[in-house]
Amino acid sequence: MDFSNTIGSKLLPAAAALAIFFVVSAAYFAPQFRGEVLPQHDVIQYEGMAKDISDMRAATGEDPQWTGGMFGGMPAYLINVAYPAQLVKNTVGKVVKIIDTPAGFLFFAMTAMWLMLLIFGVNPWVGIVASLAYGLSTYFLLIIGAGHVTKMWALVYAPLMMGGAWMTLRGNVWCGAALTALTASLEIGANHPQITYYFLVAMAAFWVSEGIASFREKRMKNFALRTAALAAAGILAVGSNFSPLWYTAKHSKETIRGGSELAATAETSTSGLALDYATAWSYGKAETFNLLIPDFMGRESGTTFPADGQTAAVLNDYGLRGAAQQLGVYWGTQPYTGGPTYLGAAAIFLAALGIALARGRNKWWIIAACVLMILLAWGRNLMGFTEFAFKYLPGYNKFRTVSMTLVVVQWAVPLLGAFALMRLWKGEIPRERLLRGLAWSAGITGGLCLLFAVAGGLFFDFGRAQSAAEMTDTFRHIFESNNMQSYIDRGMDVEWAEATADAMAADRAAMMQADAWRSLLMILLAAGSVALFALRKINKYMLTGLLGAVMLLDLVPVDLRFLSSDNFVSTQRNRVTASAADKAIMQDTDPGYRVLNLTVSPFNDATTSYFHRSVGGYHGAKLARYQDLIDRYLSRVDDGVLDMLNTRYLIVQGKEGQPEPRIRTTANGAAWFVDSLVYVPTAQAEIDALETIDTKTTAVIAAKDETLTAGIAQAAPGADSTRTIALTEYRPNYLKYEYTAPEKSAAVFSEIFYDHGWTAYVDGEETPYFRADYILRAMTLPAGTHTVEWRFRAPGWTTVEGVTLAASLAILLGAIAALVYCFRKKKA
User: What b/e sequence results for 133-162 when a residue is b if at least 16 CB atoms lie within 10 Å of its CB, and e otherwise?
Assistant: First the structure.
């Protein structure tokens, strides 16, 4: 049946696409519709980070813009700040709330990709196939399972942003600019700059391609107009998110993303992240093959060797039954991975067909973007290129986890496949050329799978290079952690260790070979469908139907390896509940103290912040000075630094294996007067001094702040016991202290110094303050009985929000004008 000349050609494919996307999403996340929830690590951590923020909003209706719940206190710009002027995000952006997550993630990702393909001129039926490939690529399920919410929303909006750029440079320039401004505003508003950055690089590749084509066709004036419209759309999109961008940019300089002042002291400072830190998660060159073969590198880090495999058999012979289940099968170069970025063998075959058949102007910029992103993903495995990018690619050195660049490849592969299918759909390719292109694309992709399935051992050692000594160390750790002293005493000979290494390599090879055969089958199914169409055994509707089925058959079973219905739990089980130790500590109603929880990884866990003001926390952009303190002192639980942070309680592992509280009686308190001040010239000297001084009586001050302490007399330690200062009221963004001092004195407050928003007042009059003890606040206080108040407010809030509001209104009005224009043009 041919719908090309009926109303069904417009309505039926749209209805079918939305129905298919919803059914696939709902079926995959069926437990969601039964009231169950998906435990997501980062979501749980985020709720801990934002707990005191959300509590204050609920209690007072005020947005604090600061959290005191983790790392001693930090701005909330990169956690949760309400920006009312973000009208695009707060209106159009609410559309995605129609379907709850996680099903909503998949539905809107596929829908956005489908809409983008329509803009690119792809038939809506063809678009369904490519959209399934995009939405079901394994990386999406991995980040959904981990709770990377902002990353997922950024990947939802990214295709529409690219569609707007396409329309601006190739279609109706004004409608395209309006669409670009709207979708780029949503993309930026998703608040994952790294994803946005990578797609902007892809957009730049497209812009260069269009510029070359315009130069050849001698229409540079038109290209300049379109470029100006695209740039204006980008400026408006940035303006509509000006508030979060402005405060993030200002704040980033103070975080680990801006570099450490200690490094500056050592004359080795950088304006971004340290290269080793940023490239820790680098894709191995060989690991890139898992885009085609999912278990190429042994699945995720948590997967262990099977009980019926060769590794288990060797260990069983040695009497180590069950030891194989403590060894990971992953043998790639990343320190840890949740699973492969599998794009689908059938999707890669169609992309290869797109390279063979798509028009040059449609494909070369995509190929260039993919090559660049793969090279960047290799990170430390191609360090020369990576160092070049860090040095010369603007802003690139602000991002870690370089393997994330593969999200562009994840988007580009279905797009290339859609371009190939579109040429088939239109009947533009002669049968001989189609069959030749089919042979090349199937031969290359299928041939690789066949080669690895049959002779993978000729190219890879599957981790066999691990030495016998390393194997011995690995098992000694297993024995010690399981109290298997008898095995430690009897020792492990080299011959046995080598046999174990051989068995591990054999099991890994078997996993790779099984998936190589599987990928080959998917390629043959997709290629067979195209061949049937080329031989006119099926029509174009049947072709898209078959390929859509192949995409589901290919991707869904692999996705289920990493995220399935088994991962869902009841709502009650997903809650973070207070332990007996938490409840005991919460009986202490003093607002000033802090807690260090040693039963978790304290500086990579924010669950403690659900209940307490925590010394630790979880955040990828904590204050740089606090990170310095963690590295130098807190990681070894230094008592002096814990005292100055007013750490009254530790949570430790009890005798019964349950957390129990341990009170610390030496904490300095919420604030205290000091008897003497030590002035030092550098940040390095400041942090070094904490090793030797008693922070209860002495404060370390930067030499540049010496004028703020004029008139304070040095006193013998403990000479004046009549000075008192106490915290009487606490909210995240407001602190009130009452004090009495017989003479002008210096007081240190156990609060994190941050002079971009905190203002201090003595009896209602604004008073200067300065940094003490590397990260704390201090003030020179007049004699007598007085009140000190601290208030936090994002600086320049009214002006910054005004810019955001103006740009947001311009985008919304432009979108309305574009809709009216398109409607009238269609009607005419």
Answer: bbbbbbbbbbbbbbbbbbbbbbbbbbbbbb
